[in-house]
Amino acid sequence: MTIPALRLAVPVLPALLLAGAGVATAQSGAPSLGQVFTCVNAAGRMLTSDRLIGECMDREQRVLSRDGTLIRIVPPSLTADERAEKEARDRRAAAEKEARAEAVRRDRLLLQRFPNEAEHQKARTAALDNTYAAMRLSESRLAELERERKPLLDESEFYLGKPLPVLLKQQLDANEAAVAAQRDAQVQQKAELERIAKRYDAELAHLRRLWAGAAPGSLVTIANAANAADTVDPAGSTVKATKPIKPASTQTR
């Protein structure tokens, strides 16, 4: 190294040494140069230090520059229970935010699919028509089963007081099972009609408020009531909705 280069390097060395010492000081929790920590303790006394104040770890501490300018505020240290509570609050807030965003999305899709009440009524009629068609098929099937049962009963009269032939008994049992299946289907179909009506009633009330100018996502209570009844997705696809109940097609012969 030349003499001029050595002269340039000598002043730099102290600065590098001081910088390294500053890093070590910060990591070890030693006094912070040029900063003042202040807080008010539980007794109401103002405390001042050149480092975090142990007596105020349960409350916020203000970090000031030497001229009194606020640099930052150090929040209080949390206990394990407090941290768990804060994390739970944060999770709830995140879930609520996501739910609001989803409500906005659904409302906008509803408005796109149903720009007016006529379109909504058309969808309601189509949903009910499917169930009414299934109910008519069930009635027709029950009448058919009744016609099939009559000759079986007539034949069974020849065996009064005697065991029925195996084939005849099987046919009567199958007919009875088919009738029971249709009766169950009718009960479900009636319940489906009520579910559809309730869903579209709630959805219509929701839409009327949106059409009147309510902001999308602001009517979560009505939306939740509709969702509880297996709503139709605003985009047009069915969400958790039961399919129209079709009559059983069990044959007895």
Task: Detail the topology: elements first, then pairings.
Blueprint: H1 3-28, E1 35-40, E2 46-49, E3 61-65, E4 70-74, H2 80-113, H3 117-156, H4 166-211, H5 220-227
Antiparallel strand pairs: 1-2, 1-3, 3-4
| Global morphology | elongated
**How can the largest sheet be summarized?**
4 strands, antiparallel
Number of strands: 4
> Alpha-carbon distance between the termini?
111 Å
Give unreliable regions as ranges.
Answer: 1-29, 228-253
Provide the structure class: alpha+beta
Order the strands across the largest sheet as they lie in space. 2-1-3-4
Amount of helix: 55-70%
Structure in words:
The chain has 253 residues and is of the alpha+beta class. Among the domains are: 34-72; 98-227. It has helices at 3-28, 80-113, 117-156, 166-211, 220-227; strands spanning 35-40, 46-49, 61-65, 70-74. The protein is elongated, with a radius of gyration of 39 Å. The termini are far apart. Residues 1-29 and 228-253 have low confidence and may be disordered.
Features:
disordered C terminus, alpha+beta, 253 residues, elongated, 4 strands
Outline of the structure:
This protein has 253 residues and is of the alpha+beta class. Helices cover 61% and strands 8% of the residues.
